[in-house]
Amino acid sequence: MDALRHTFEQQLAAALPGVDITLERPRSGELGDLAFPCFRAAKQLGKNPAQLAQELVAAIRIEGAGLVAAGPYLNLKLAPETRAAAVLGAILQAPGDRPFGSRPPTGKKVIVEYSSPNIAKLFTIGHLRSTMIGHALAQVNQFLGHEVIRLNHLGDWGTQFGTLLAAYTRWAQDGNANLEADFDWAEPAPEKRRTPLFRLFQLYVRFHAEEEADPAMRDEARGWFRRLEEGDAEARRLWAWFREISLREFQRIYDRLGVAFDTLAQGEAFYEDRLVPTMDRLAAAGLLVEGDKGARIINLEDVGIATPCLVQKGDGTSIYATRDLAAALYRQEAYAFDRCLYVVGTDQVLHFQQIFAVLAKLDSWFQGRMLHTPFGMVKLPEGKMSTRKGNVIFLEDVLDEARERVAAIIEEKNPGLADKEAVAEMLGMGAVVFFDAMNDRVKPITFTWDRVIALDGDTGPYVQYAHARILSVLRKAGGTWAAQAQPGAPQGPCLPFAPLTLPADLGGLAAPEAQALLFELAGLPPAIAAAADGNMATPLARQLVSLARTFSGYYTNCPILAPENTPEVREARLALCVATARALRQGLHLMGIQAPEEM
Questions:
Q1: Residues 570 and 424 grouped into a single domain
Q2: Which of 134, 148, 406, 476 is deepest in the core (most CB within 10 A)?
Q3: Same structural domain for residues 552 and 442?
Q4: Mean pLDDT, residues 344-352 taken together
Q5: 227, 243, 259: which is the final residue of a domain?
């Protein structure tokens, strides 16, 4: 399809010298495979767009395709067998390490910073957005040929640790003894939550609740953080333990989500020894100004940002802006990246505007390389979630509930299914992750159980079921087709599919339902590219739903294993099944979702 696009663009450029050529994908294959909107070209040439489309029909010839003027659009439509050969050839005969329009190495480095949970806090449903949006962006950028560095900028420094240290030394059992011992559970907690990390969460919530009535506690917390920054042995010992138990818990959740990073331990504390050099560099550049109560700030009014960037508090302690600046300068030195994506919520828009403006003042190299990828927050029906107040939904509870609902359905409808627990986990995870991806990244999400773990409609399980149904057909077909139902373990962003010989006769794919399915298959690479361009998985998720829905129409109206089919029709239709299964599996994999072989 890339070759077809290139040919169409060349012919249009020859017919319209000096005109910008931009092609679009029509809404359906009935309209065509590629479309050229004539509006801009017609304006440049002083013509009516519909008239120009008619003229181009007569001026352009492309072998195996027809050109149709549809009002102001010039649509290119492939002949049925040409479309089948082009699409199936691209999917079934592509190299195993670069299927579906994936690109060879571009030589560009892209950093994706995502997830970034705070130490000593459990994962909530809110953490899912950054984690899975970032994972999909990392997968997609690697699929497009970029070298991707996956970073988890842990929140393991800052005033919140003063709060934790103050709370722990106030209320935890025997804080100076064996830190691995059980806590004194003064507050009730479910058995699955009776862990040191959950106890730290409880202490954090309790401290913030009580400090509202006793403001002096805030000074106590600030004092502990100052001790931490100054290297106090007791503060450092407790902080190191908080970090250790948190990393163990985080890794367990990441393993369950199938998410991995190039480094998990490179959080804010990693840049501690770079804070002073960063402040020195800001001072040398003449950017630092003294603010209220001895704080140090950077004015940004000259670049249209009214709020100054605070980089050091009046008591001399650092703030996350300082650490983000230090991190960016380190990444420039360590990675010489082409682009750095920060997958962080919309509440940090101003922060990143400030950070990027300061970096551009320090070094023009940063200009255009830094991008904040904001996402809307997850809210509860009664309002915003707050870890401080303890009104949160834990991510693991959501994943467990989704798995249990799926397991109950399997027990009812297919109790003999092999590996029922593993399939229930795949489908439950698919429901939760796909729900998030189907929602526009920048819009907030209101959490309700039925919406987040829905199993019906345009959901992950619906797409996963289409994949499992295809593999069932292939197993029934037997022979070499049955072997295609054993796709093997995922490896990297491109799944290892072996090239498959294309049937010599593709006439069995002339039916409208088969052609519609081929059109949707051809839409997968553009959807992946759109996910990269828009920095969200939504275009990919919606394309997978369209693909699964269109396969359902194909399966219903084009009998694949019917006895009356000729061998040529059977082979062509099975080849289209394999291509669809590979596309579904690849698309789900890029989103961090597994495709079950049976359901």
A1: yes
A2: 134
A3: yes
A4: 96
A5: 243
Report d(CA 67, CA 33) in Å as an integer.
Answer: 10
Q: Do residues 72 and 188 both lie within one domain? A: no
Question: Which residue has 């995922």 as its token pair?
Answer: 490
What CATH number has the domain bearing residue 52?
Answer: 3.30.1360.70
Domain of residue 63: give its range: 2-78
d(CA 373, CA 134): 9
371-389 tens-digit pLDDT: 999 999 888 787 776 666 6
> Would residue 417 count as lying in a domain?
yes
Distance CA(114)–CA(148), nearest Å, equals: 12
Is residue 307 a part of any domain in this protein? no
pLDDT score for 537: 96
Q: Does 295 fall in a domain?
A: no
Domain match, 66 and 214 both: no
Three-state DSSP string of 246-301: HHHHHHHHHHHHCCCCCECCCCHHHHHHHHHHHHHHHHHCCCCEECHHHCEEECCH
DSSP symbols for 423-448: HHHHHHHHHHHHHHHHS-TTS-EE--
> Do 56 and 183 share a domain, yes or no?
no
Between CA 84 and CA 569 the distance in angstroms is 13
Cβ proximity of 416 and 349 under 8 Å: no
Number of domains in the chain: 3
Q: CA dist 354 to 45, 173, 304, 367, 526, Å? A: 44, 42, 10, 13, 34
* CA dist., res. 567 & res. 574, Å (int): 10
CA 272 to chain centre: 29
Q: Residue 569 maps to which CATH number?
A: 1.10.730.10
Q: Within a domain: residue 377?
A: no
Which parts of 55-178 are beta strand (E)?
A: 65-70, 73-78, 109-113, 147-151
| Boundary (domain end) residue, out of 22, 54, 78 | 78
Reported as a single tens digit per residue, the pLDDT across 59-92 is 999 988 999 999 999 999 999 999 999 999 999 9
Spatial CB neighbours of 531, under 8 Å, sequence gap ≥ 6: 136, 137, 140, 537, 538, 539, 540, 590
**CA-CA distance, 506 to 86, in Å (whole number)?**
11
